[in-house]
Amino acid sequence: MNAIEVRCLSKTFVNGRKALDNLELAVGAGEMVALIGASGSGKSTLIRHLSGLVTADKSSGSRVMVKGALIQEDGRLAADVRAARREIGVVFQQFNLVGRLSVLTNVLAGRLGRTACWRGTLGRFSTAEQHQAMSALARMGIAETARRRASTLSGGQQQRAAIARTLVQEASIILADEPIASLDPSSARRVMEALKRINDEDGITVVVSLHQVEYARYFCRRTVALENGRIVFDGPSRALSDERLRQIYGAASDELILPREEPAAGGEPPPITPAYAFS
Description:
It is built from nine helices and eleven strands. The chain has helices spanning about 45-50, 80-85, 105-110, 115-120, 125-140, 155-170, 185-200, 215-220, 240-250, and strands at about 1-10, 20-30, 30-35, 65, 70-75, 75, 90, 175, 205-210, 220-225, 230-235. Helix 5 (about 125-140) crosses helix 6 and helix 6 (about 155-170) packs parallel to helix 7.
């Protein structure tokens, strides 16, 4: 069974620009798929449709399903979309943590869709839920930050806390929208390793939009490339060479290809290690 199914998905903005153009996509359960594309290609718009944050053009015949449950159809959210959203964890570029609250409280917010409303409102989480949150933070390598204000963490730590929140949510699908765009190379690598680890160990389906193809090649077996709201490549990440990217995107491909870096003598290794490279 597919974890995600998209049919005839189109989205037109008020200025008349088509962000998605009759897009069709299927993602199998347990896959880790990269979405790549130059700025304005439709990556973020697609992720927002998959999570039900925005709706498609009406009367387009569109449909988005997650784990067999309807998210939206023909530009309208499903009546029971809230139940379906429990299965979807979303990781945003800007972390979406409440800076004045503790890291632990931010992670526990992942339980809000699966607990009594009054308990969530009052912040009364059970001991078992708190242990679950601490375990998730430990898996992300940041358990020591649990009692700190979220605003005091580095960008990479905040993003790993956001991923921990999806684990506490018990999401079976993670949609990560440019999760490493604002991070330094070392932090970006740790975030991608965290996503890959939970995909491998938990079987969680991961769809991650990326701005550089190198991360897709190392961490994702499959890459879907978008241009002007359409899929222009869907296949093994290793087949998406720099030359192929230039054929697809022309000059715009420069923003998708990281410059080749060699480690300085006795210095740090290049940003991406081949630990997850696929042959």
